[in-house]
Each structure stands twice: as structure tokens, then as C-alpha cells.
Amino acid sequence: MSNLRTEEFDINMGPHHPSTHGVCRLLLTMDGEKVVKVVPYIGYLHRAIEKICENRTYAMCIPILDRFEYVTAMSCNYVFSLAAERLSGIEVPERAEYLRVIMLELNRIASHLIFFGTTAMDIGALTPFLYALREREYIMDLFEMTCGQRLTYNYIRVGGVSKDIPNEFTPKCRETVATISDKVEEYKRLLNGNPIWKMRTIGVGKLDADLALAYGVSGPILRASGVDYDLRRDDPYSIYDRFDYNIPIYQNGDVYDRYMIRLDEIQESCKIVAQALDQIEDGPIRAKVSPNFKPAAGETYTRIENSRGEMGVYLVSDGTKKPFRVKARGGSYPHLQLLPEIATNCMIADLVAIFASFDVILPEVDR
Q: What is the CATH number of domain 9-365?
């Protein structure tokens, strides 16, 4: 046995690989099935969204930024609109604020359902994926009922929202969040006691708080490593201070905790939506804003709590109807940078689970 020698070899995982959740290429140095080194390669999806926005009016930027992070496109609409409103001093009507929160939290739920289903499927469980898409369809129905779209919405606009909700929206929305909240408990019963699931997730891909902060990690991944930080509470925006909800925190920073925290966040978002439906009152849904309005010259960095962490827009106005500079920030980019730090010296099957638990969306990286 002393003469036994292994030889390392390189292998490409992606860019066209279902477990990379988009067109991401991972160059793996392998020793058998053990990952010795992993290097992410990006750039296969670059579309120059930021530069395109600099050649459009502010209103024309909204549908373009829908594609920035299409799994939670409402957030893309919102963060740009909020930045433009802060530059212009535009006051958003109260009903519009409630409608925005309802749509943002419904979209957060839809995103976490996609995470739950795809992560389980990557690890080898197909049934959760079918369940998650089933529940997500209820939310897509609500979006289609409101704005006619199911993926990219162009709904949240500078000054408010494009349309009011129809009469049938409120009862259907109440039914949806109640159903999804119950289904989350079913998801936990389905997976949490499964010995294969526990073996594949508990203690795998551990991320400590110091490393997470050093890499600029945010959102559920940061909170799964024990850092109690959520922009909705710690850098308040909109009307989130009017709602009673918890910020789930876990301590181990492994694949299991990153999975659990998103299920808990689904239930907290259901609470927020239910309270918003109780509190919303009649009124205007949009401030009077010209399609070619010109904010005063200035700059702002505006950030919100997206389903993948901090989403921000750095916006510079030169006083014309087009932005002088647009720079977007998504949570996926720093999360992808972490992969070489915590996915080495693991099995290739564990790498798939770790990558899935980061919930990276490639358009947010290649913007």
C-alpha cells in the first residue's frame, strides 16, 4: 500500500450544468471524488444592464432592471424606484407603500420556495421541488391578477405602483399565505427527520460569522451564521416598522441552517403580508410623476433586504431625464466568492449541496 499513488485532475462543472443554477463554470481540481480546489468562472451571462440604464429615462429603467434578479424582480423594481424617489424627494402614497410591501414579501416567499425545491432536488429529493412549484403557482396567480405578469413585473414604479389590486386579490391572498404557512410545516416533516437529508446537510459547508462578514455576505446566509442583521429592521425603509415579525437566526452556518432559515422566513413573510392586508386603506396608488421627470443633480446609494441579501443601487443624477450612473449590488456575487473558501477538501456531492445552499442567481452576478 505504500506504493499507492493518486493523481489530481481538473474537471469542468458547468457552465451548462443544472446544479450551477445558471451559466456558472466551476473549475474543479479533484483527487478522486474529493474537491482539492474550486475556482468559479463568471461572465457567460453579461448583458450590461447598468450601462443600458444610463441610456434610458428613469421610467424606462424599471423593466430593464426586472431582469437583474428575475427570481425576485419586484425587489429590482423597488430598489431603483426608491433610489430615484430619494433623489427627487417624491412622497409615495400610503396605499402604494402597503401594496409594495405585500408584493415584495410575496416575491420573497416565491424565491424561497424556489430555493427549497431546487436545493432538495440537487441533493436528491424530487418531491419537495414539485411541492414548492405547486405553492409558488398560487403567488404567480396573484401577480398575474394584479399586473398581468408571472416573472418580470414592471409593477413598482417611481412614485408608487402601476395598478391597484382587483377586488378578488385580498381574499385570494389571505388564503394563499395561510396555505403556504401550513405547507412549510409539511416541508419540515417531509425532510427534517430524514436520515439521508440530515447526513447531506448537517455540518456540511460550515461558514463562521467572521468569514461571512469579511466577504460582505448578507441576508439569510449571514443570519444562518449567527449574525442578527436584517435591513428591514436595521436600516429601515418603507413601512416595515408597522409590522410585527421576527428575524430568524441560526448559529451553525451549515447547509442545514441555511435551508431552515429560509423556511422560517417564509412564515415570517406570510405574517407581514397578512398584517399589511389588515392595515391597508383606500387611497391613491401613485404620486404625480412625469414619465420624463428629472431628479435634482445628486447621488444616492439605496439598499433593501432582498431574498438573497443586500440589494442596492448607486444612482447618480446630473439633472437630466436619464441617470448619469447606475451601479447595482446583489447578494449573489459575494456569496459566490465564498465557494473556494468553504468548498475545498469536501466530496463533489457536498460541493453541489453547498452551492445550492448559497442560492446564487447568475444574472445578479453577470449584470
A: 1.10.645.10
